């Protein structure tokens, strides 16, 4: 399959037939969730025909997909699930013949420098880092639990440090939650707060400058930043549940024990999911995480050994992903399909139910498009 030369056109071309008179079938490959498809239809609708083959790669962090997604998900010819956790969520809504596992890998530059002095980290201290985007749900990322684990592990140890890397808040709710966390850690001189957006190379350099990445998340669809830290050979401590189990195990990292609890969050995107039976996430064990952190601070050999195994496992994962096996499977799966599923009516239904005040217009090829200002 050959990607389209136009970067704004979410389409790849599938070639079929013999050397002469080849038949060309277009594949619309969407890296957007259903709500994003509807919101931004005005931007992409003119580039594609929804009677072509439609493939979606969704990202989601809970065991069940939102009910509102169902019409669009079922109208897709194939759903590419980027983790086993997301695959199971998709199977709660979509038939197995339309879901294909699509493993992910992190791709980092060969040369990433460790420069602890650049970030104000003390010499000979074991440095931990907690990194999260407040827009990805502070309740889900759960940085407070990681801070508690650090302070429980090291109540009076001056030879450790914790970096909290976050971005600027985009809503009043996020700003309030961040301010509360910042006030709670302000009395601990070992904690460095970095609140700004870094270039990718800079962010990787920050990970490389620390010894341990700590994530006591309640759920991850994938956990890309965990992959990145492991690729850099850093010991990674993270909740042993959800999408990160695709690449984390006790052999290459430190999965933290947890218990499953009913979903409880202030994130607007998840509010409708709170009452649903089976919509749970993990509550990681702070005591277990603290014990792991103490072991790592006391044992550099252990940190280096597990970090080396993490980097090796990430190299092996990248090699498997680069074989393109998923796209061979996608081609084979599509070749067995005899009829396209109807995506346009599903998008119209989603638009009417989710965005009743959003203007509707006629787009090319008779497709209804949605005008929206974005997120």
Please describe what this structure looks like:
α9 (224-231) links the parallel β10 and β11. This protein has helices at 34-39, 41-44, 70-75, 84-90, 138-141, 143-153, 172-185, 200-209, 224-231, 286-298, 300-321, 325-335, 343-354; strands spanning 2-3, 11-16, 23-30, 53-56, 78-81, 99-101, 126-131, 160-166, 191-195, 212-215, 235-239, 254-256, 258-262, 280-284, 360-362, 368-370. Residues 1-23 and 358-375 have low confidence and may be disordered. A six-stranded mixed β-sheet has the order 1-2-3-4-5-6. The chain has two domains: 2-105 and 322-370, no CATH class; 116-321, Glycogen Phosphorylase B (Rossmann fold). It is built from 13 helices and 16 strands. The chain starts with a strand and ends in a 5-residue tail after the last strand.
Comma- or semicolon-separated keywords:
single chain; 375 residues; alpha/beta; Rossmann fold; 2 domains; 6-stranded parallel sheet; 13 helices; 34% helix; disordered N terminus
| Apparent shape | globular
- Tell me how many strands there are: 16
As for the number of domains, it is: 2
CATH arch. level architecture of the largest domain = 3-Layer(aba) Sandwich
The proportion of residues forming helix, as a percent range, comes to: 25-40%
| CATH topology title of the largest domain | Rossmann fold
**Top-tier CATH class of the largest domain:** Alpha Beta
Low-pLDDT segments: 1-23, 358-375
Q: What class, by secondary structure content?
A: alpha/beta
* CATH H-level superfamily of the largest domain: Glycogen Phosphorylase B
């Amino acid at each position: 399959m050959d990607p389209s030369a136009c970067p704004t056109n979410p389409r790849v071309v599938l070639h079929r037939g013999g050397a002469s008179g080849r038949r060309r079938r277009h594949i619309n490959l969407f890296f957007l969730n259903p709500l994003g498809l509807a919101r931004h239809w005005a931007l992409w609708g003119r580039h594609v025909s929804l009677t072509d083959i439609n493939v979606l790669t969704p990202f989601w962090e809970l065991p069940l997909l939102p009910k509102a997604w169902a019409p669009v998900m079922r109208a897709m010819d194939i759903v590419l699930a980027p983790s086993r956790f997301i695959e199971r969520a998709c199977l709660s809504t979509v038939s197995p013949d339309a879901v294909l596992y699509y493993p992910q890998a992190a791709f980092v530059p060969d040369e990433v420098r460790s420069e602890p002095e650049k970030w104000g980290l003390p010499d000979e201290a074991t440095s931990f880092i907690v990194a999260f985007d407040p827009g990805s749900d502070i309740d889900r990322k759960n940085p407070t639990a990681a801070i508690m684990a650090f302070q429980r592990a090291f109540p009076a140890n001056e030879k450790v440090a914790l970096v909290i890397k976050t971005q600027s808040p985009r809503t009043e709710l996020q700003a309030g939650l961040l301010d509360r966390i910042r006030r709670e850690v302000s009395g601990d001189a070992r904690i460095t707060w970095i609140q700004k957006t870094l270039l990718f190379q800079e962010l990787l350099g920050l990970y490389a400058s620390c010894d341990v990445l700590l994530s006591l998340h309640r759920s991850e669809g994938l956990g890309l930043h965990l992959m990145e830290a492991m690729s850099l050979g850093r010991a990674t401590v993270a909740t042993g549940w959800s999408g990160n189990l695709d690449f984390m195990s006790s052999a290459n990292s430190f999965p933290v024990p947890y218990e499953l609890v009913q979903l409880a969050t202030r994130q607007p995107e998840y509010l409708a999911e709170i009452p649903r039976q089976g919509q749970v996430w993990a509550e990681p064990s702070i005591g277990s995480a603290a014990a792991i952190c103490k072991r790592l601070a006391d044992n550099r050999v252990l940190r280096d050994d597990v970090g080396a195994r993490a980097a090796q496992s990430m190299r092996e994962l990248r090699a498997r992903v680069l074989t393109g096996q998923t796209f061979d499977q996608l081609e084979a799966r599509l070749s067995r399909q005899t009829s396209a599923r109807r995506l346009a009516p599903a998008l119209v239904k989603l638009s009417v139910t989710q965005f009743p005040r959003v203007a509707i217009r006629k787009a090319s090829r008779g497709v209804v498009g949605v005008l929206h200002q974005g997120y």
